[in-house]
Amino acid sequence: MKEQGLRITKKLKGVVSTAETLYDDQRLLIQSSFGAPVINEYGARDGGIIAYECPSGSMHIAEENLILEIVDIQTGKKAEDGHSGLVIVTDLHNCSMPRLRYQLGDVARLSNEGCECGKQLRVLQTIEGREDDIFVSREGKLVHGHFWNHIARNMNGIKQFQLIQHDRESVTLKIVKNEKFKPEEVEFFVHQIRDVLGDININVVYCERIEPTASGKLRYAVREFPLLPHEGVAAFRRTGW
């Protein structure tokens, strides 16, 4: 729309974003293209709406319908408000297939503050993406996948990218070039990866496009091995019972 100068003629009240993590630069691009505020929604295809953004910009949890917990990724114990952890959901109104402490595989953090809109529903401070987007450095430090997005979005010559961590020693960086591509940007990207993950092997692959998943989502970061031997928390995982 921006490239072709297209505009929506009708006045829109808002544009709802769902299914993937909404980054700040994406929000600004959508708002400027559609001329309307972006309303973020957080849910699961098998669990319905989990949180919704109010006019004041807070992501209120749908606590009338579910119990949401945030647990520490490494210990599986309750995480303090303001600290990242795994999202665990228990249904309150799912009579066909109730779920108890269901691990969605998402990473988020609760806010310890209320919202100026006056609603008493608790607020998600951030929704950070998937647990399997988290990388592990050679020294065992956890690095969330959205870190790579912050690097790539400032590179004008990269149309798409995907970083795949095979193990703690090696990653593959897939790059889709555009007409503004400069090799120096990829060299900088590689330097940033090593600066965070350590002196690891990085295989750079140039391709025409990066295929989305079966659900249509484009994954920027993929980890191919378990995060921890016990994989976090004793709860039902989204991958099965």
| CA-CA gap between termini | 43 Å
- Structural class call reads alpha/beta
> H/E order of the elements?
EHEEEEEEEEEHEEHEEE
Largest sheet data: 9 strands, mixed
Portion of residues in helices? 10-25%
How many beta-strand runs? 15
The stretches of 5 or more residues where confidence is low (pLDDT under 50) are: 229-236
How much beta, percentage-wise? Answer: 25-35%
Radius of gyration: 19 Å
Number of helices: 3
Mean pLDDT: 87
Large-scale geometry: globular
Q: What does the model show?
A:
- This protein has 241 residues and is of the alpha/beta class.
- The chain has helices at 24-34, 146-152, 183-197, and strands spanning 15-17, 38-44, 48-53, 59-61, 66-71, 85-91, 102-110, 123-130, 135-136, 142-143, 158-167, 170-177, 201-206, 221-223, 236-237.
- It is built from three helices and 15 strands.
- Strands 1, 2, 3, 4, 5, 6, 7, 8 and 15 form a nine-stranded mixed beta sheet that branches. A four-stranded mixed beta sheet has the order 13-12-11-14, covered by helices on one side.
Core attributes:
4-stranded mixed β-sheet; 3 helices; alpha/beta; 241 residues; 34% strand; 15 strands; 9-stranded mixed β-sheet; globular
Detail the topology: elements first, then pairings.
Layout: E1 15-17, H1 24-34, E2 38-44, E3 48-53, E4 59-61, E5 66-71, E6 85-91, E7 102-110, E8 123-130, E9 135-136, E10 142-143, H2 146-152, E11 158-167, E12 170-177, H3 183-197, E13 201-206, E14 221-223, E15 236-237
Parallel strand pairs: 1-2, 7-15, 11-14, 12-13
Antiparallel strand pairs: 2-3, 3-4, 4-8, 5-6, 6-7, 7-8, 9-10, 11-12
